[in-house]
């Protein structure tokens, strides 16, 4: 029997190229140890850029033959027609948070560990036993109701449009945003479950009736449902992260819950709600970068500003109606260190600052 080494040598003979043949097989940058099919934002490409930029093909950049796949009703690949906003180059957007698969798992792991440790320490120390009935009532009704808003935005806003943007960089940022919202909604659900199982006067199912029927929460619920019915992905992102989250979300989370909890002997809720605000701060960062790019676009900037003005006219009154309806909950806690007027003034001021950063005028409804 022939030696197996000999068989391999006979099956796969060594091929030697002449200089001219070898030269014909070389291509530009064949020996480069880094990607060079795009221009990095800084001197050296980051890992975020290497794993996101141009991962999604585009006929305007690399597919010289046009889209190689498409939808049954006509548009190919990633249609720009899915939003009325326009950009001379959508690929200019890069997430300032540089979020990608590894970073989202790493960051969320830290947050989950923090929340778990907080809840374990709360049960070990028996802190729930020292909370007043009025504060427990506030938590079961209002923090529990907000869980539905977060879950609705996670599943029916950000998850639904994380494939709608014209570049992989935009879609990745939106997908991370969806993960943030989903995790925060689950954190609130776990908190609600812990309180339900504790030996305290807490009705763990009250949040459902509050979200579905309580008069103070119906305008907020209506806005969330209207957001889920919006087809333009760019309008949906603008209306949610720029308008709703500023006027309603941060108003409730930062200007109310995180301000009054400690005065009611609660140091647990601010820790959990604070993770949601931290997530939103990061999500607002990429949103501002995207819309700043669109308002400063040399070709479409002015048209985009006009378009965003119509979105402000459409969504700001709805969100202000929701905030005004929530006013009674500022009086539900036993200790009330802040007033609704002060909280709304702070939220409105931050909202105007965001609009100024984008080069947009504040809507007149804020002065009423």
Give an account of the 3D structure.
60% of the residues lie in helices and 0% in strands. The protein is built from twelve helices and no strands. It has 368 residues and is mostly helical.
Quick tags:
12 helices, 368 residues, disordered N terminus
Strand content: under 5%
Question: How is the biggest beta sheet arranged?
Answer: none
SS summary, helix count: 12
Q: Helices and strands: which structural class? A: mainly alpha
Which oligomeric form is depicted? single chain
What's the gist of this structure?
This protein is mostly helical.
Please give the structural blueprint.
Layout: H1 4-11, H2 19-24, H3 47-52, H4 101-125, H5 133-161, H6 168-197, H7 206-213, H8 218-228, H9 233-260, H10 269-295, H11 301-325, H12 340-357
Helix pairs in contact: 4-6, 5-6, 5-7, 5-8, 5-9, 6-10, 8-9, 8-11, 9-10, 9-11, 9-12
């Amino acid at each position: 029997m022939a030696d197996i080494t000999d068989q391999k040598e006979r099956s796969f003979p060594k091929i030697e190229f002449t200089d001219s043949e070898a030269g014909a097989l070389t291509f530009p940058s064949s020996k480069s140890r880094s990607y060079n099919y795009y221009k990095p934002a800084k001197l050296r490409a980051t890992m975020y850029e290497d794993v996101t930029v141009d991962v999604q093909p585009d006929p305007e950049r690399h597919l010289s033959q046009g889209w190689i796949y498409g939808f049954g009703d006509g548009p190919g690949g990633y249609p720009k027609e899915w939003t009325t906003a326009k950009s001379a180059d959508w690929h200019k957007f890069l997430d300032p948070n540089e979020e990608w698969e590894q970073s989202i798992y790493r960051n969320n792991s830290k947050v989950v560990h923090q929340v778990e440790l907080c809840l374990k320490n709360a049960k070990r120390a028996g802190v729930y036993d020292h909370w007043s009935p009025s504060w427990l009532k506030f938590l079961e009704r209002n923090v529990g109701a907000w869980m539905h808003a977060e879950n609705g935005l996670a599943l029916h806003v950000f998850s639904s449009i994380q494939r709608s943007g014209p570049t992989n960089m935009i879609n990745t940022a939106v997908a991370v945003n969806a993960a943030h919202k989903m995790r925060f909604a689950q954190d609130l659900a776990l908190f609600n479950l812990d309180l339900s199982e504790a030996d305290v006067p807490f009705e763990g199912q009250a949040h459902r009736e509050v979200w579905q029927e309580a008069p103070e929460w119906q305008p907020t619920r209506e806005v969330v449902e209207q957001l889920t019915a919006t087809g333009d992905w760019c309008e949906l992102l603008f209306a949610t992260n720029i308008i709703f989250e500023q006027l309603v979300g941060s108003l409730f989370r930062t200007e109310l819950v995180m301000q009054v909890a400690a005065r009611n002997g609660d140091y647990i809720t601010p820790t959990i709600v604070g993770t949601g605000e931290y997530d939103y701060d990061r999500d607002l960062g990429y949103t501002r970068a995207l819309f700043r790019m669109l308002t400063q676009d040399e070709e479409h900037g002015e048209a985009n500003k006009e378009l965003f003005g119509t979105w402000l006219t459409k969504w700001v009154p709805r969100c202000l109606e929701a905030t005004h309806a929530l006013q009674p909950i500022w009086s539900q806690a036993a200790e009330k260190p802040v007033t609704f007027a002060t909280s709304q003034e702070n939220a409105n001021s931050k909202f105007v600052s965001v609009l100024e950063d984008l080069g947009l005028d504040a809507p007149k409804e804020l002065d009423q």
